[in-house]
């Protein structure tokens, strides 16, 4: 029988309710969120990382294969540097594959989004580097190679608005620096004027792409966070309901004064055990306990002290119920019943005697009793349930034994 006052349970319930309040507060305010308060942010990042490992990692692997696939252009346009460009491309791909395999298995597993962002940045940087190695005007073809990388950054980093923005802006800055500081290849005057018009337009186009991507990533991330909050709220509500149901069950089956099972639960368990022992044809034993001269105890020590005495005796007896199916319950007033399924009469009587001795050993002062300490009288009955008998017969038999124990002078065990 679980303990109703389980501190751990009520602490957990308190924690769950606190989290529900925080989440409901955030959702009620109805604003878009790109950062949650405290631990919630950390939980969200863990969740996002998990999703990344499940879904986005495959997208990154696909992107890397595309990146490697473009090596045909290295050989086609690379001239003398074709091999060098291919080796660089190959090394970037291999490094990223290694990181994608190793990081999730390492202590950096929580930083997969950062790894992906760095990988995309590295790929973009490599293309900027390749532009330097491609001979003459052919290098302009590689400028366009930055577009798919930028688009890929928008897709792969859509769940992290900040990572997407940092990678995109950094790449654009590197590109502009390269434009400013690298030599322009000798071109015909016509081509030169086209390039002069085209380059600022290309940078502007890129900026617009980043702006559009930033807007989309912001919308996607805030909606992902919103969904996360709603799902988390649902999970917390379910957890809360589970605790409340458990607590309700405890309240309805526990006696509030003694903390052991109440009569309702006793009757339910007795009926179940009776049916089970009827099927298995094994003995079912009942130990009926009554505190001796308890009226005198109350009269002498007061009702409150009487309650404490009831509690202590009940708890001491409950500690003997070790096997599954054993149950110690308050039957009413100062009467208790212990159900012992699959227990033979001799074993039950032995256990009853141990319980009686343990109550004497509690040494609860009882000045008006001849033993000077609180004692109990115990009646024990056992039966192998039959179809034409009922658990009431067993109860009546235990009650008769208890009556005899009282008749024999109390503080003793009588077994049928
Ligand atoms: N403090 C307290 N006393 C209770 C409670 N329930 C029953 N009692 C008291 O238990 C006493 C039972 O008295 P009796 O039935 O006369 O039995 P007894 O004095 O124990 O005498 P014997 O059973 O013959 O040994 C009554 O005085 C009840 O008021 C309770 O929840 N708390």
Automatic annotation (TrEMBL):
E.C. number(s) listed in UniProt: 2.7.7.65
Domain of life: Bacteria
Catalytic activity: 2 GTP = 3',3'-c-di-GMP + 2 diphosphate
Any GO CC annotation of this UniProt entry: plasma membrane
Keywords: Membrane, Nucleotidyltransferase, Transferase, Transmembrane, Transmembrane helix
Residue span(s) of domain GGDEF: 282-416
Spans traversing the lipid bilayer: 59-78, 84-103, 115-134, 140-157, 164-182, 197-220
One GO MF term attached to the UniProt entry: diguanylate cyclase activity
Gene3D superfamilies for the chain: 3.30.70.270
InterPro entries: Diguanylate_Cyclase, GGDEF_dom, Nucleotide_cyclase, Rev_trsase/Diguanyl_cyclase
Necessary cofactors: Mg(2+)
Keyword Transferase: yes
BP GO annotations: cell adhesion involved in single-species biofilm formation; negative regulation of bacterial-type flagellum-dependent cell motility
One Pfam family here: GGDEF
Protein name per its UniProtKB record: diguanylate cyclase
Naturally occurring in which organism (per UniProt): Thalassolituus pacificus
